[in-house]
Amino acid sequence: MSHPRQVVIGLAGHIDHGKTALVQALTGVDTDTQEEEKRRGMTIDIGFAFLTDSITFVDVPGHDRFVKNMVRGVAGIHMGLLVVAADDGVMTQTREHFHILRFLGVQRICVAVNKVDLVENDWLELVEEDIRQLLAGTPYQESPVVRVSAIERTGLEALRVVLIEEAGRIRSWEDRGFFRLPIDRVFSLKGFGTVVTGTVISGSLKLGDSVELVPGTREVKLRGIQSHGANVDQVVMGDRAALNIANLSADRIEHGEQLATPEYVAPTKTLAIEISLLDEAPTLPHNHPVRVNIGTAEVIARLKLPDTSRLKPSRTAGAILELQEPTPIVAGDRLILRSFSPITTIGGGIVLDTEMPRWWRDRKRWVTRLVSTSPADRLMLMIGSRNSRPFSLAALSRRWGWAEQKLRTALPEEILQVGRTENPWLVTGSQSVTLNEQIVSVVTEYHRTYPYNRGANREFIRQQVNGDERFLEEWLKGMVDQGLLKVSGETWSLHSFSVQLSDEDETLLSKIVDTLEQQGFQVEYVEALAVSLDIPLERLLTLCVFAEGQGRLVRINQRIFMHRDTVDRLIGAVGQHFREHRELTVADAKEITGTTRKHTVPLLEYLDRNSHTIRVGDKRQRPGE
Known about the structure:
Mean pLDDT: 89
Largest sheet: 6 strands, mixed
Shape: elongated
CATH superfamily of the largest domain: P-loop containing nucleotide triphosphate hydrolases
Number of domains: 5
Strand order of the largest sheet: 2-3-1-4-5-6
Structural class: alpha+beta
Distance between the termini: 66 Å
CATH topology of the largest domain: Rossmann fold
CATH architecture of the largest domain: 3-Layer(aba) Sandwich
Radius of gyration: 36 Å
């Protein structure tokens, strides 16, 4: 696996354990830049410094009042540097910051035991034992622990070597294929204007690329890009970036918003998650208010529990978060869960889906299915969830959080790609079987209900299976190719189906056809015809439609059927008229048919629909003239 071009190391640890002093000792940079930070001797907001040309430190506050700033600072890091003061040992914020790093899926952690000059060796060994217990049973249990003193400048070179070695083992994040940068700082610079900073967590960006600010989907125009303090033409996933924005003032941009390739990151208020609670977390009841830190955003939410009324400590379960505000979130994002009051970290989780069914019953069922399905099989579950309204490649890429080209290459071989080459509909094997069975059942029932009709039209089938119209058009073609259905004009039927009229209906149909042939152009409306022939209207219509399928009758409109020979005479007479005249008026048509305007106008409209004439104002012309 490739390695990132830059590695971002986030500092973590209890207040006064010397994170900022350690960064300054390693880099010569004081990351406390605010006047209040210097006055109070504590970090309030995040700060930055460079260990090497490819390694960036993100210094974060340790005080529990500023944990949300800490989370914002470590949201886009590759590695954590956990600082523990030797005289205090593992403290409350030490544990909380460690859990935050763990829940965010930080790849590697290095521990710096600072202020070793203040304690005896026996005490130092006890502190290191507490650290090992904190790391035990986690992916970080083999993490290096280095003794240092920022003030005495001892152990700094050893720590530098360890950090560089560990940074070299960092793997690149999985690239989603589109640009994404959660904003962790916003400010104005005289002569430059608005600047936002953050870590590129997906894709790449170069000057001239389209980018939008989410939420709000506001177009952003870039004036310049910097990385590691230098002007660059492009930043890629893993880079720290400072973007100079030309068209938005700093007061219109907030922490927690994101810059992204247009249309890929959408704000959402409801999401499915898999949540894990800490051992020391309280039991959480259904509909409990919580604080959610995700990306660089913090938002209040309600925690909904689909399978239980209370979630106990140390448990992992599926849940639904209903956020107070629309927040830019993509499936696969990691989040931190903190109690509403008092504010402490209680757990973490991963986003499984950012779109929920409308009804609570369906939401519960969907979250349960997502959690019970292995991560490797969730893509198949997502594709197969749509039945007769399948995802297009573009729609699924937004829902799954991957660019279309990346998603296309990741699709399992068994996925059917239906229709359009550039943006096909995606169907699983079981979904295909189910859909075919549903449509065959619909057509079978149609034959049973309307035995004299040739078959069901596409709109009838679509309504019965609640399908997408454009997709169903392609799918029905495939069913014909597979021999599951046959098509005649705009109707679909089973291969085994054929119309067999009863002797009585054969007699009635002959009577209808003969009558219409005798009436010529002066045919009666179907309501009057049913009365004159003493046939129930519905039965007459059924037989007329059957004769239409045989080609014996022609439907002029919903109320007029005409004998095929009569229509052929009309078409021939109109053709002869155009050989002698350039235009056809209503009066001309009345003379040809010997009918009144009541019949002539429907006949002209029939000729227009079937391209025998083209209407120009109140007259008709031969098509193509």
